[in-house]
Design goal:
Layout (H helix, E strand, L loop, with lengths): L8 H6 L2 H15 L4 E2 H8 L3 H13 L3 E4 L4 E4 L1 H13 L2 H16 L2 E8 L2 E8 L14 E3 L4 H9 L2 H8 L14 H14 L2 E4 L6 E9 L5 E10 L5 H21 L15
Antiparallel strand pairs: 1-3, 2-3, 4-5, 4-9, 5-6, 7-8, 8-9
Helix pairs in contact: 3-4, 6-10, 7-9
Length: 273
């Protein structure tokens, strides 16, 4: 099998030493928790093995990488963790997300919201209002359970299986007549959300309201919260939900990418079978 180098030959001629070191760090980070040996790194980056070895040794000496003497493989080390944590502390999620909320409102004409997860609830922390005279708005700072409404279900669907099981073990409040309170039915709904990439709610949190939402993740994979589009129920037809849902899912993925999240090769977590 032929492997295409991640760095094109023309790029290698002008790539600086620092640039090549960053390429090495990035490929190890992208494959985590898998560990990589020097031959694999050199081949996939299109580097001479001696060059890749020298870069790896220098990064390991500075504790940016860890080297396993038994497997002869490398993984990210304490130095990389310190840099990553510093970057996380510098992130302002609402500021990043607001640009996307504004774009969603411009494209759809509906209100866009941002929610943060706080344990077994979520809280609205920002919104950009629809320009329509008849529109939905939310009360910032209000909390809602994780099973009612699209913003909540998007978060719940993205949680690890253990956390999902803990949540579903408690009684589920019926917020409106349309709220899903049967754990088995809710599990099926969450599986559907994971498959399609966004959640839909028609009157599940608020009577007469329709919404679509998708989860936002930190670079660690931990769920921050969700973004949504919401409006009067009669404007959220099946086709509109599909169209708006795709836009919200794409925006949530872009926000998560800005937070450092890289999706795994195959879906993990979220209570999947």
């Amino acid at each position: 099998m032929t492997t295409t180098p991640l760095v094109a030959p023309d790029d290698r001629r002008v790539r600086s030493g620092l640039g090549r070191a960053l390429d090495v760090i990035n490929i190890i980070a992208a494959r985590a928790p898998e560990t990589l040996g020097v031959s694999t790194i050199a081949r996939e980056l299109g580097l001479p093995k001696a060059v890749a070895y020298r870069i790896l040794k220098e990064l390991a000496a500075d504790e940016f990488l860890d080297f396993d003497e038994d497997t002869k493989h490398y993984r990210l080390g304490a130095g990389a963790l310190a840099v990553g944590l510093a970057a996380l502390r510098a992130l302002d999620v609402p500021e990043i997300a607001r640009r996307y909320l504004v774009r969603l409102v411009r494209r759809t004409g509906e209100t866009a919201t941002l929610s943060v997860r706080q344990g077994s609830i979520r809280v609205y922390i920002d919104q950009v209002l629809s320009p329509h005279e008849v529109r939905m708005s939310v009360s910032l700072g209000t909390s809602h359970p994780l099973h009612s409404g699209s913003s909540s279900k998007a978060i719940l669907a993205a949680l690890p299986a253990v956390e999902l099981d803990e949540y579903l073990a408690q009684p589920l409040e019926r917020v409106t007549p349309s709220t899903i309170t049967d754990p088995a039915v809710l599990r099926a709904e969450l599986a559907h959300i994971r498959r399609q990439g966004y959640a839909v709610s028609i009157g599940e949190r608020q009577n007469g309201a329709g919404s679509v939402a998708a989860a936002i993740r930190y670079g660690t994979g931990q769920v921050f919260g969700s973004i949504s589009l919401c409006g009067p129920q009669d404007r959220f037809t099946r086709q509109v939900c599909a169209d708006h849902g795709a836009l919200v899912a794409a925006a949530a993925a872009d926000i998560s990418a800005e937070l450092g999240f890289r999706p795994p090769a195959s879906p993990a977590g979220g209570g999947e079978e």
